[in-house]
Amino acid sequence: MSFFIRTSKLTSATTRSLPSRLFTTTITRSFSNTNRIMGVHNLANKVEFDAALKDNKIVVLDAFATWCGPCKAIAPKIVSFSETHTGAHFVKIDVDECPDVAQELGVRAMPTFMIFKNGEKIQEIVGANPVALEAAIANALKDE
């Protein structure tokens, strides 16, 4: 795991003439062998998707698109679920960035949530339905 942090300290004399966008703090984090309690992980390709299925007993996949309003609305709930259901590994895949994975999984609407157990899909929820999704996650973890 590695971190890169960039900050700027400016005095009030130098800040008067500079635009406010310069006063941002950038934090970048790269993940390598991350702990599953660390939230929802974005997958970039099929290799990462296959590795997530292989390395984790329960995987909750969020197939989303950046332009999708319901996807944006349910995203905070997914993060919350990842914090409360630590027995599952939560991943996201952008269907526009990884169309091969989306096509292989048969994603036709966004958001689509799929729950995998031991590499096999056991449930699919189409649409932003947090109640149904949490019930499906709890059901998948019940036998663990």
Report on this model:
It is a single chain. The protein has 144 residues and is of the alpha/beta class. The chain has helices at residues 12-15, 46-55, 69-84, 99-105, 130-142, and strands at residues 2-6, 26-30, 40-43, 58-64, 89-94, 112-117, 120-126. The strands form two sheets. It has a five-stranded mixed sheet with strand order 3-5-4-6-7, sandwiched between helices. The radius of gyration is 18 Å and the shape is globular. The chain starts with a strand and ends with a helix.
Radius of gyration: 18 Å
Order the strands across the largest sheet as they lie in space.
Answer: 3-5-4-6-7
- Contiguous low-pLDDT stretches (5 residues minimum) are 1-15, 18-37
- SS summary, helix count: 5
The number of E-state strands comes to 7
Mean pLDDT: 82
Give the distance, in angstroms, between the N- and C-terminal Cα atoms: 28 Å
* Structural classification: alpha/beta
Task: Report strand %.
Answer: 25-35%
SSE succession: EHEEHEHEHEEH
Largest β-sheet summary: 5 strands, mixed
Instruction: Give the overall shape.
Output: globular
Indicate the percent of residues in helices: 25-40%
Protein name: Thioredoxin
InterPro entries: Thioredoxin-like_sf, Thioredoxin_domain
Pfam families: Thioredoxin (PF00085)
Keywords: Disulfide bond
